[in-house]
Write a structure and sequence with these properties.
3-stranded antiparallel beta sheet, alpha/beta, about 40% helix, 9-stranded mixed beta sheet, Arc Repressor Mutant, subunit A, 15 helices, single chain, globular, TIM Barrel
């Protein structure tokens, strides 16, 4: 029987980070109305998935650590009215380091949270101030250590590389600091300059430099070596885990497994179609309350499903399985994949019909995937 994931998008932050283009609002007076609408959406869409068993629940955002204990409990308890949790279900809660204290950690544990994703981003206080983050590097270290001392063993930390504040030496120092904290999981993302963000607008006006792509490549390679040497498994381009601690929720996305997204801008996938909620809090609430469609959707063609499998599969250590391609999409797709992939020398590792990318391939994963698409 298939299992699925449930995602809650909490679209509120105390302030905007200069690089972030996720949907959020800093106007917290609307929080109660949005949360009520989200609970109503969960009730209305309880039959969206073909299964009622969840392998994961994920609170993302935005800043979920803005939620009060009763609000977290209400989301989880409402979900359990309609779904059951797998025995080893993962319940992830994204938090900012400055929201972590003994009281908050205790209430998250009481609510059933068993995995924390801590948005550290940097251990450089000057860089954190530039990013418009509210915490310090000291807050980050204390947050991880306190969470571990209270009993959270499944902790992921987020890092960003590629900014103007970094060079190879400073990035290695960041990685050393991260490894010294012994988190179960590390997510590290190359900084991107999105047009509508503060950083994007300043870059357009010539007030911020672009990304040094060659430096980013070298930082990626150093990161891989250091984390692999420290015992982490590199299982997705931006994600490293200690054995047994791969993120179940995000892995389901990459494996093309079903999930239900609740909240403004949240996406859902039922294996055949995708839905994405309106990325506007007021419009989302209004349509939910009126019983109207609060999302847009598309039914995926077999070509689109194949292309998505290739795109996500090649980002992971699990790669793409030609037998699975044939069984899911047909012989034409299998032959196309093998013919196209075999033209690309030096970027694939091939074992028992599974094609995965080596380090050089990972650096150009999206371009390689696009060359393997069936158009």
């Amino acid at each position: 029987m298939p299992v699925a994931g449930l995602y809650f998008h909490i679209p509120f932050c105390r302030q905007a980070c200069n690089y972030c283009d996720f949907h959020f609002s800093t106007v917290l007076k609307d929080k109660e109305n949005v949360l009520k609408a989200m609970l109503l959406e969960l009730e209305n869409r309880k039959n969206y998935l073909s299964t009622n068993e969840l392998s994961s629940i994920y609170f993302g955002g935005g800043t979920p650590s803005l939620l009060r204990e009763e609000e977290i409990n209400q989301f989880i308890q409402t979900a359990l009215l309609y779904f059951k949790l797998s025995p080893d279900a993962e319940i992830t809660f994204e938090v900012n380091p400055d929201d972590v204290n003994a009281s908050a950690l205790s209430l998250w544990q009481r609510a059933g949270i068993n995995r924390l994703s801590i948005g550290i981003q940097s251990f450089n206080n000057e860089e954190l101030k530039w990013m418009k983050r509210q915490h310090s590097q000291e807050d980050s270290v204390e947050a991880v250590r306190l969470a571990q001392s209270i009993g959270f063993s499944n902790i992921s930390i987020d890092l960003i590389y590629g900014s103007k504040f970094q060079n190879l030496n400073s990035w290695e120092e960041t990685l050393d600091r991260a490894i010294s904290l012994n988190p179960a999981h590390v997510s590290a993302y190359n900084l991107t300059i999105e047009q509508k963000t503060e950083l994007g607008l300043k870059h357009k006006r010539g007030l911020e430099p672009g990304i040094d792509d060659q430096l980013s490549v070298e930082q990626f390679k150093r990161m891989r070596k250091k984390l692999l040497d420290a015992g982490y498994v590199h299982y997705e381009i931006s994600n490293f885990a200690k054995p047994g601690f791969k993120a179940k929720h995000n892995s389901a996305y990459w494996k093309q497994e079903p999930y239900l997204g609740i909240g403004p801008s949240a996406h859902s996938f039922d294996l055949n179609s995708r839905q994405w909620n309106y990325a506007n809090n007021a419009r989302y609430c209004k349509t939910i309350e009126a019983g109207e469609a609060h999302y847009e959707s598309e039914v995926l063609s077999i070509k689109e499903r194949y292309n998505e499998y290739v795109l996500t599969g090649l980002r992971t250590s699990g790669g793409c399985n030609v037998q699975w391609i044939e069984g899911s999409f047909g012989e034409i797709f299998k032959n196309h994949f093998e013919t196209s992939a075999n033209k690309k020398k030096g970027v694939f590792k091939i074992e028992n019909g599974v094609y995965s990318l080596n380090e050089d391939g990972l650096l150009q994963a999206d371009a390689i995937a696009s060359d393997l698409f069936l158009l």
